[in-house]
Write a structure and sequence with these properties.
16 strands; seven-stranded mixed β-sheet; six-stranded mixed β-sheet; FAD/NAD(P)-binding domain; binds flavin-adenine dinucleotide; 485 residues; single chain; alpha/beta
């Protein structure tokens, strides 16, 4: 049999993990091609930063490129001597929160080290953007922005996050203003003077990373962070800060965490958003009282969410997204302890403050200052002057399909359908995309953030890696290739 060809569109974490897991888990030789415009495989938006203050938001053990080999990343860190060269990464319990730039190196090196397998499987990087896709009598043709096209037996769409949100106040008169940073993950913070008065709009993980980075640079000016609901990411569980207890027996490996038993209430027949929330809060209060922290009760639902979320009716999903998503996010996306401690210390001194407010509009001044019209919780609009305003408002999920030429084309050809929650596209349980009438297209699978509507939270490395692990047997069946036993 000729080598099966698989094209992966997108070379961020999802594309890198898919390529590596495919060649590790399928016995027959495969030719895997990653189409990615960037020169390196792995970084995507999340890991392209060089900023040493930006760390992974969870321990190394859940950041393996292959969820079935949970120690893979930790072993790499040890081989690289990272625990010695970056001693701050280590916590008293022995867990480590590694810098995101080191994780980027891990991804690139791991893809490279899997590029040629003893069975003849290969991983190749084609540096281009995939603009279009057509089904052929046999296989799929993908057109690239350099005018070439490549064919394969199957395609995996790993196109990542929606574009960053650009609120109105980043456009018009303020566009290009030296004090306005609309995309801090791309542009960096070098233009901000140490004594600048800084407004951070949004108070999620990126906002906390930005604040920690400013502080690490010796920033002395005041920093105010605002968010509509006054929420901010919560800290990690107390066990993270405690010296190592006896390891559980048998050890809990990440896949067990995702596939273990569901709490009774989450396994109930008719699930509603309200009931789930009420029971989850009760459970979290119990685990807090037991000294495990509320995090344990919360994780009992958030870790296996991909098995709970699909059982919620669409209307209930919408209800969660409308009312509960900000609260879910604040508890799910927890701050790395180092970031948390740095930010808390500066809050204590009054340099950093968090407020419940929204930025209504932004006015420029002749002296390069920016006046932010802040709508406070009581509805009052109060103007306040800043030297720098940083947009940390996250992704614009409403533009997930239309901003990407290949998704746009698939949508126009009637091969993908937007998820009714507005989050990404519809797939079946094995990630095959579904056309508007519900027919599955076995040659095309989608993974990662674009599948959020279907799986609930395929956003972190751990969840994406597990999603890929789960889809491989079905893909092997569709391609008529054997899995390694
Ligand atoms: C700032 C930030 C920090 C994060 N930190 C963590 C963390 O510490 N731990 C964690 O578990 N998760 C973290 N995440 C979650 C993160 O979303 C995932 O870890 C992961 O990066 C998602 O990977 P991805 O490959 O799906 O998407 P992306 O990283 O967005 O990569 C998508 C890639 O697809 C390419 N692409 C898109 N369209 C095309 C096309 N048409 N043709 C060719 N290529 C295309 C893009 O160039 C890009 O390289 C973080 C996310 C962000 C934004």
């Amino acid at each position: 049999m000729a080598r099966r060809q698989i094209i992966i569109v997108g070379g961020g974490f999802s594309g890198a993990s898919a390529a590596v897991q495919l060649v590790r888990k399928i016995a027959d030789p495969l030719a895997v091609t990653i189409v990615e415009p960037s020169p390196v495989i792995g970084p995507g938006l999340a890991y392209s930063t060089d900023d040493p203050s930006f760390r992974l938001n969870a321990i190394s053990g859940v950041h393996s490129i292959d969820v079935a080999d949970p120690g893979h990343f930790t072993r790499w860190c040890e081989d690289q001597g990272l625990m010695g060269s970056d001693p701050e990464a280590r916590l008293p319990n022995g867990e480590a929160f590694i810098r995101r730039r080191d994780f980027r190196r891990y991804l690139a090196e791991t893809v490279q080290s899997h590029a040629l397998q003893p069975n003849g499987s290969t991983i190749t990087h084609v540096r281009s953007r995939a603009d279009d896709l057509h089904l052929m009598d046999e296989g799929v043709e993908v057109s690239l922005d350099n005018g070439n096209s490549i064919v394969s037996d199957a395609v995996i769409l790993a196109v990542g996050n929606a574009p960053l949100r650009r609120p109105d106040w980043t456009k018009g008169g303020t566009e290009g203003h030296p004090g306005l940073i609309p995309d801090p993950l791309r542009r960096g913070l070098d233009t901000i003077k140490p004594d600048a008065r800084v407004l951070v709009v949004g108070a999620g993980l990126t906002a906390l990373d930005i604040i920690a980075s400013l502080l690490a640079r010796g920033h002395s000016g005041p920093i105010k962070a605002i968010s509509r609901r006054g929420l901010r990411p919560q800290p990690q569980a107390p066990r993270i800060f405690a010296p190592q207890a006896d390891p559980p027996e048998p050890p809990v490996v990440p896949l067990d965490l995702l596939e273990g038993e569901l709490p009774d209430y989450a396994a109930a027949e008719s699930l509603t958003a309200l009931r789930l929330l009420r029971d989850m809060r009760r459970h979290a209060a119990e685990t807090k009282a037991d000294g495990l922290g509320w995090q344990a009760g919360f994780d009992a639902v958030s870790l296996p969410l991909s098995r709970i979320w699909p059982r919620l009716p669409v209307e209930e999903k919408r209800r969660v997204l409308r009312h509960l998503r900000p609260f879910y996010d604040a508890h799910r996306f927890r701050t790395p302890p180092m970031t948390d401690l740095a930010v808390q210390a500066s809050e204590g001194s009054g340099q950093v403050s968090f407020r419940k407010a929204a930025l209504d509009s932004l006015d420029t001044q002749p002296d390069e200052q920016l006046v932010a019209n802040l709508r406070m919780a009581d509805g009052q609009v109060i103007p306040e002057t800043f030297d720098a305003v940083i947009n940390c408002t996250g992704f614009d999920t409403s533009r997930a399909i239309r901003h990407n030429p290949i998704l746009d084309s698939l949508h126009d050809q009637g091969m993908i359908s937007p998820h009714p929650t507005g989050l990404g596209i519809v797939t079946d349980a094995e990630n095959r995309v579904l056309a508007p009438g519900g027919a599955s297209i076995p040659q095309i699978r989608a993974i990662g953030p674009i599948t959020t509507g279907v799986f609930g939270d395929p956003l972190g490395v751990f969840f994406i890696s597990a999603q890929i692990h789960r889809l491989i047997p079905g893909l092997a069946r569709d391609l008529d290739v054997k899995l390694l036993s």
